[in-house]
Amino acid sequence: DSTLRRLVTELGLADRVIFTGQIPYDDLPDYLKMGDVAINPFMPELLTHVALPHKVLQYMAAGVPVVSTSLDGLRGVLGDASGVTWVPGPHAVLKAATHLAYRDPAELAGISANQRSYVASKFSKEASVTSLESSLAALL
After folding, report:
1. What are the residue ranges of helices labelled H in the chain?
2. Cβ–Cβ < 8 Å for 62, 40
3. Which of 76, 48, 50, 54 shows the shortest CA–CA distance to 66?
4. Could you tell me the CA-to-CA distances from 121 to 18, 44, 106 in Å, in that order?
5. Closest to 85 in 3D by CA, of 53, 54, 62, 108
6. Nearest-angstrom CA–CA distance, 18 and 135
7. Model pLDDT for residues 19-75, shown as the tens digit of each residue
8. Which of 18, 66, 67, 129 is 20 to 30 A away from residue 104, measured at CA?
């Protein structure tokens, strides 16, 4: 923690970085919304290709545009229609996130709205109940 604080100060970013410590879960969306772009950098490896990091869904639900390493499991669940910017590896995530952050604000707002809508339609409680009901009905 002290190393990160020192680095932020050395880089002149103290006015742009907030160290919150642990926050209540219910406050998480408010903190996520402070970001311009969210990143999900993973090294593409056997284990990470089947990962489904929930933080990506949380970012999308908060309306923060997401840039992620293209992981087979995550991309398979979300699909290309999710609006996530998929890149080949963690270094490309940072580059793509920087480019995305400097796009036109109206374009970013559109990406945010699309991702928020996508998550609500696919992963909300209502969508989950509907999917479960359909699956159960198919068994009858």
Report:
1. 2-10, 28-32, 54-61, 72-78, 90-101, 105-123, 125-139
2. no
3. 54
4. 32, 28, 22
5. 108
6. 44
7. 999 999 999 999 999 989 999 999 988 888 898 999 999 999 999 999 999 999 999
8. 18
CB atoms closer than 10 angstroms to residue 117: 13
pTM: predicted TM-score of the whole model, two decimal places: 0.81
Cα-Cα-Cα-Cα torsion 118, 123, 126, 132, nearest 10 degrees, comes to: 130
C-alpha 10/C-alpha 16 separation (Å) is: 13
Instruction: Return the amino acid letter for 126.
Output: E
The structural domains of the chain, ordered by start, are 1-32 (no CATH), 35-139 (3.40.50.2000)
* Residue of 102, 57, 62 whose CA lies nearest to 84: 57
